[in-house]
Write a structure and sequence with these properties.
Elements lengths: L1 H19 L11 E2 L2 H9 L8 H8 E7 L5 E3 L4 H4 L10 E3 L11 E3 L1 E8 L5 E11 L4 E9 L5 E9 L8 H4 L13 E2 L2 E2 L2 E3 L10 E3 L5 H14 L6 H11 L1
Amino acid sequence: MRFVTTLVITASATLLVACTEPDRKKQPPKPTELDQRLTLLESAGLMQKRLPVSTLIDKYVDVKTVDLNSGEFRPSKFDVDESLTHYPLSATNATSLSAKDDIAGIKMRENALPVYFIHDENGVTYRLVMPIRAQGKFGLIYGYLGLNSRDFSIAGLKFYKHQESKGLGAEITDNPDWSTRFANKLIFKDNKPSITLSQKHSLSQDPYRVDGISGATYTSKGVEHAINFWTGDLGFGKFLRKFRAQTQ
């Protein structure tokens, strides 16, 4: 009888612990955060030049401030390093987004942000790099989107901060080959951002379609939403149209 009583008490205690302990399988992974300057230069394609980071920035990168509400842009009062942290998300520099408009799941969007103009040795801008972010599975994913200035096709896409699962969503930083899928993909169809990340892998040559990460639907959708939101009218869309009008 004592054995049965002890067994019941032990089982009850075990059940109580099981009910109160967190499910470790559902705990968010540890955050990943890479060097922002390197990520910026990688998305611009400048790391191939094999020069020191400071030299690449001084020689090939100009930073401008973009008013996201109007699309107007002007030289930034910050240098590249300063610009990485000097556009805070605050009540005086942000717009609240409705659920309908907030496809990126960010809730608020800055009214002004930096854009990095990548130029050649002759000072001719050939790429534009923009900061982007969106909701992944466990939190926001942050990165840089590089566009060819001629047709706004994707020149580079790199992420530097996230909290996605190792072997799944974390492939956005852990697998350098994954981001090469975006090279030369088109964004605008009928003047509307139309990138799609599909979990159904195929040999399709659709210029707007990219294979997502197997088993990481939320992260893949987060990347899709990040690109489409930040190239749309609530992101850098107005700026891109003004830039094109001034350079044609």
